[in-house]
Amino acid sequence: MGYELNKQIAPQVKQGRKKMITQQGVMGYIFMLPSLVFYFIFLLIPLVFSLFLSFTEWGGFDFSLIKWVGFKNYKDFFFGGHGFLYPVLTNTLIFAFGSVLVSFFIALVISYMITRLRLEGFWRTLYFLPMVTNVVAVGNVWDFMYDPTNGLINSFLNTLGLPTVKFMDNPHIALYSVIIVAVWSGIGSAILILSAGLKNIPDSYYEAATIDGAGSFRLFWNVTVPLLKPSILFVLITGFIGGLQSFNLILVMTGDGGPGNSTNVLGLEMYNQAFKYGQWGMASAMAFILFVIVLIITLIQLRVFRSGGVENY
Amino acid sequence: MKRKFPWFSYLVVIIGGISMIVPFLDMVFTSFKNQKELNSLKFSLLPEHYHFDHFITAFQELNMGRLFTNSILATLGVTVLVLLTSTLAGYALTKIRFKGQQTLFKFILATMMFPAFLFLIPNFYITVHFPLVGGNDLFGEGGNGGLATSVLALILPFSVSGFGIFLMRQFVMTIPDAVIEAARIDGASEFRVFWQLVIPMTLPAMATLAIFTFIGQWNELIWGLLIFTVNNNLATLPVGIQMLQSALDPDLTKALVSAAITISVIPVMILFIILQKYYVKGMQMSGVKE
Questions:
Q1: CA atoms within 13 A on the CB side of A184
Q2: Rounded CA gap, A184 and A177, in Å?
Q3: Which Pfam families does the entry mention (chain A) (predicted)?
Q4: Cβ–Cβ below 8 Å for B1 and A203
Q5: Nearest-CA neighbor of A100 among B283, B289, B212?
């Protein structure tokens, strides 16, 4: 009986639904409209514009003065002898690698320990505070602490009987001094991700390994690390990509990537080429070169995640 | 399982914790120090006497009131727009069927792969030469700054976020289709379904997105610096403090900058400590730091 009734009204329902879907279809575009307009103005147009600029020479003001130069900017970048490859690109890689590796190792140890302590939330908040602090504050405070005459760190070193270090003035040290600050300010997010990963490892695994006679080091190496692999990869790769792009800390702490070119990175050089020297063509070419580097690493990331069996990637 | 008291872990975590907090303490205490102490060759963390004049000078000399207003307007503007556009798109991408939906979603995911610096140069030009605003003609010429004549320059380029759309999509997806179908059959328009059904049900995700966007935008520097070069009245807090460094008497700078920094950092820290839960959720979903 019920079946018969359904059969009778089924075609009507079908028609009604079809009408609903087409009406809905228009609404779908209306709801998407704000986002689409934005993407058109601030993403698609800029992308094409920027790609075009990278093949030109232009000071950024008068369109009639724009000059098509083909691949000249790209050639200049690699073979022009402007120091873009060394030290700027090498600095970029050292900065990205250095800050992500150091903060990863410290974060791994700290989050492994934190999950075993009381007041876990308090510690996590403490380590996270620099993440919500603006980069101008972080950079300036560390500049003050690095001060050779009366900064906190050198006074501390002197009290221990160690000599004064010119953290930001010595070209051999400056980049590493900035890396320390990057580690300090970025470690919170690594701890967050890693400690969330650690919580997902069941206690029974540790208990089983302990019964089998594993010590705490083997426990860490043979149980924790393999099970934490997805979180570890996530922290390393996203951190590395972020590190390649970031230049605001260096801008705040050194102004121009000095002393000399010793802390200059690709992002900062791009910024200066455009807004300091008025070389918009070269700056755009640099943006695309950096983008390709980031893209390659992102693709490797996807590959690694998939083969590592990480979900949702 | 019985464990020994983890004294070694406490030791390491506390030493680490001290090095996390000391720079903040140094910042706060430096802003209370007077000239004599700042020039002294001997360092001490605590000031001899507490002087409050730097905070007052910071407010006067730096025009902190103006910086605060700009920062608040820009940050709130971006947060509201990101919430609105993300929720609208999140709803359309999951609960409305239309042609090209999947392609659009893939496009939005792809936009997240484009790093921000790629758009810095062209967007600066587009903002300054925006047609028909700030005295510009139809071709974006002739004006005195285009969008950069108003605080909109600090808002519009950030008003849509691929991450925001992604987050809201994931969340709206969990609302059962039956609930929305029922409202539609009762004759509710899509807008009513959106305002009266979807918005209230997505509030937790919106809170996460809001706090995450707010803190990120409050701390934004590079774009603010660029807009500042066109229009000095649009300096935000980080920009104002960054510019202060070079503008002032170097002897005075240290305490003044510290005072200004302290003022700029405190509100966000309070906000973070209160709304941590939501912020952390956003952090774990994005995992990427600027």
A1: 23
A2: 11
A3: BPD_transp_1
A4: yes
A5: B289
CATH of the domain at B151: 1.10.3720.10
B9 occurs within a structural domain: no
B185 touches chain A (CB under 8 A): no
Which range of residues forms the domain containing residue B213? 16-34+50-286
State whether residue B266 sits within 8 Å of chain A by CB. Answer: no
A148 SS3 class: coil
Which tens digits make up the pLDDT trace of B104-162?
A: 999 998 888 888 888 999 999 999 999 888 878 888 777 778 898 899 999 999 999 99
Report CA-CA distances (Å) from B259 to A10, B31, B32, B63, B256: 72, 5, 8, 13, 5
The ipTM value here is: 0.89
- In our burial notation (b when 16+ CB lie closer than 10 A, e otherwise), range B191-224 reads eebbeebbeebbeebbbbbbbbbbbbbbbbbbbb
Length of chain B measured in residues: 290
Number of domains forming the structure of chain B? 1
CATH says A72-307 is which class?
mainly alpha
Optimal mutation site among A61, A141, A185, interface B, most CBs of chain B within 10 A: A141
Among the ranges given (A58-67, A99-108, B218-227), the one the predictor scored with the smallest mean pLDDT = A58-67
Q: Which residue of B has its CA nearest to A155?
A: B43
**Domain ranges (residues) in chain A:** 2-53, 72-307
